[in-house]
Every structure is written in structure tokens, then in C-alpha cells.
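Chapter review: from sequence to fold.
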Amino acid sequence: MRYPVILTKDGDAFVVTFPDVPEAITYGDTREEALARAGDALMTICDAFMKDRRDIPMPSETAGPAVEIPALETTKIWLYRTMQRANVGKAELARRLKWHLPQVDRVLNVRHGSQIDQIEAAFSALGKRLQVTIIDNEPEAHAGAHRVHGAIMANAKRARTASISATLGARTTSRVTAKRAAKKRPLATSPRR
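The C-alpha cell string follows.
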């Protein structure tokens, strides 16, 4: 997800604002410093919106400066949006996953480094499947490099720009269950002689 930003000079500082999320504002002594801080400001507001059960606005199209939300955080935002659309609260998601409520809180917390299998399981409980796509960077960025661009398909309009699509199914759940079962099995040891 790429959110457009507006950079304005204010005395000796540069101020960054987001047209789609006016609550997110930050600054820096240089243009680069202001843009580097912009992602953190945006994540802080997204986290606050989740806690207040508010909608997180989708980014508008832009050709100018923008801040890209990292893949993990994007996936968590899409999980939150999917829960809202399905009218599933945290307590209901915890019940479906047989998790404690703090586990759901951590999966939704954009500051917490959740494991991808936990997020897959959460989407699966909502009837969706997580799919990851790798795309080339834009030419003006680091040429030849690859990045994981995180966005989950919400509808056909967003499908053309999405890199992570949501349609979780039973196959993911069984794979996660098999991984957990394998971790619990004791290691085979040979008898002592």
C-alpha cells in the first residue's frame, strides 16, 4: 500500500502530511528525514484507528512522493479490514481460532512482529487465503531489486495493484496444524549400548 504524501517547507523544517489520512503528520530537518519519519507516523495512526474500531482509508492513486507500508503491516491492515467487512470482532476471531484474546491483539498490532502462519490462520478463520507475489521495483527505485509488496485484494478494482491476495482456505489451516504437530513430536534417539 502506497500512501501519497504532501511535503511542505515550514521555516527550516519539512512537514509531511497525508491527503488520505489527515491525522498523520510528521516533520524532519531535511526532505529525506521527513519522508523517513512518515511511515512511522502513518503506522501510529493506523494502529490508533484499529484500537478505536475506525475504518482505515485506502490510499489514493499517486505519481508523486508516497510512503509504502511494509508487507507485514499491510497484511495486518487487510486482516483488520476483512474482519470489519465480515462483522467479526476480536473475541469472535479468538473463538474461531481457539486462541486467547491477547494472541489476536498481537496479530492485529502493526508494531508486533507476528509470524506469517499466525496471520494465515487468522485469514483462514475468515474464509480467506493469503497469497504472496513478488514484483520488480519501479524503475526510479533500486533497479533490478525485488520487493515484497503487501496488499490483499479487497475487490476487483484493487486486484490489478495488489500483491498479496486474500482468499484463505482449509489447506492453509491443515498446513499450519501439521507444522505445529511436527514441532511437538519428540526427536527419535537411538538406544544406548
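Two observations follow directly from the output. Residues 31-51 form the longest helix (21 residues). Confidence is low (pLDDT under 50) at residues 141-182, 184-191.
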